[in-house]
Amino acid sequence: MLGCSLTNKYSISWQISFANMNRSLQWDDLRVVLAIVRAGSLSGAARGLGVSHATVFRRLQTVEERLGVRLFERGRSGYTATAAGEALAVTAEDMETRVLDVERQVAGRDLQPVGTVRLTTTDTLFDRVLSPLLAECRRAYPEIALEVVVPSQRVNLSRREADIAIRPSSNPPPTLVGRRVGVVRQAIYLHQQLASKAADWQALDWIGPDDSMGYRSLDGWMRKQGVDGRCRLRVDTTRGLYAAVRDGLGPAVLPCYLGDSNPDLRRLDDVPSLTSDLWLLTHADLRKTARIRVLMDFLGDALRAHPQVGLGE
């Protein structure tokens, strides 16, 4: 939620401006203000809204003219909301929540497994595990169109950025419903061409996660093992870690479903402390929607039985 701590002076000023605003202000205008507050820039807001930078700039100008108040301070570091901008963003966020609640409730009344389902997961899970399962799913439910999102950052199911998420997690969000469908195990992998040095893997030049990857548990494990100082290459994705190991640049910790898929890689020690559960999740308002329900059941059963990540039940 947005934090907005306004004094009485700002609150009264905002109420006057809001009361005098042009009534043609639309929900799309409020969405623009909210997107700028969240992104801190016009370009970030444009990416989030799927429109051009010029469109966001023009809409912001329109809103400020209609309200007769400046909503953002422009600086080198980006756009910072004024008190009026924060207040409008809080109102917009409340409206967004109401709109999304209605959308989910309406979507939840679907009776037939027909329509589009947007699914989010990681790129490596999609490549090595999910893609063949989705091919089977499409044959079983041809009236369901699938959209797969594999962003570097997690999407938000509560904002309807996706309908279903398949995520490694030790603590899934309490606002979502679903079930634990698998386990993602981790191990140290090394290319076969370096096999002669496998016994002394701590002395090799390592491959590790870049800070932007946000892989804190792996960072901590590498420090404990004393290999963080041996890290000569850092990348910002799991796929990047895999590619570097595949090309013989050194050892790295990889998900076993990924590392085991390449016969040229040698699996060294397992890393149980980095094991995580695999969850299949959706929003509570969507779980009774026919197309969501059948996909949750299909994928849940298939993942639990999967040889690489399944629970073996």
Question: Gist?
Answer:
By secondary structure, the protein is an alpha/beta fold. The protein has 10 helices and 12 strands.
Descriptors:
single chain, 313 residues, alpha/beta, Arc Repressor Mutant, subunit A, D-Maltodextrin-Binding Protein, domain 2, 3 domains, five-stranded mixed beta sheet, three-stranded antiparallel beta sheet, 10 helices, globular, disordered N terminus
Please give a structural write-up:
Helices cover 41% and strands 22% of the residues. It has 313 residues and is an alpha/beta fold. The protein has 3 domains: 8-107, Winged helix-like DNA-binding domain superfamily/Winged helix DNA-binding domain (Arc Repressor Mutant, subunit A); 115-184 and 276-304, Periplasmic binding protein-like II (D-Maltodextrin-Binding Protein, domain 2, 3-Layer(aba) Sandwich), CATH 3.40.190; 186-274, D-Maltodextrin-Binding Protein, domain 2 (3-Layer(aba) Sandwich), CATH 3.40.190.290. The strands form 4 sheets. A 5-stranded mixed beta sheet has the order 4-3-5-12-6, covered by helices on one side. Strands 10-7-11 form a 3-stranded antiparallel beta sheet. A two-stranded antiparallel sheet has the order 1-2. It is globular, with a radius of gyration of 24 Å.
